[in-house]
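User: quick one, sequence for these C-alpha cells?
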C-alpha cells in the first residue's frame, strides 16, 4: 500500500470521526469544533518530539570522521599539486 493511500485513509477516518461527533453531540459543540485544531497542534508537538529524539540519538561515527579528515588532506594535497591555493594547513 502506498504511503499516500495510508495518509488519505487516516484523514478520512479522522474526518468521519469528527463529523460523527458533531452530529451525535456526545461532546459539547464548542469543544467539537476545536478538535481539528487540537489534532494539528498535537501533530506538531509529536513532530517536534520526534526531531528531538532523533537529535538526542544521533549516532557519532568516529571512524567516518577520520576517513573524512583523510579525504580532506588528500584533496588539499591534490589541489596544491595542481597549483590551487587552499589556505591554511
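Assistant:
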Amino acid at each position: 500500500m502506498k504511503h499516500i493511500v495510508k495518509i488519505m485513509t487516516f484523514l478520512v477516518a479522522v474526518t468521519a470521526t469528527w463529523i460523527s461527533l458533531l452530529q451525535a453531540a456526545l461532546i459539547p459543540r464548542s469543544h467539537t469544533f476545536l478538535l481539528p485544531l487540537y489534532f494539528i497542534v498535537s501533530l506538531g508537538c509529536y513532530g517536534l518530539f520526534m526531531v528531538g529524539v532523533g537529535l538526542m540519538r544521533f549516532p557519532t561515527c568516529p571512524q567516518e570522521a577520520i576517513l573524512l579528515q583523510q579525504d580532506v588532506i588528500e584533496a588539499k594535497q591534490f589541489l596544491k599539486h595542481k597549483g590551487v591555493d587552499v589556505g591554511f594547513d
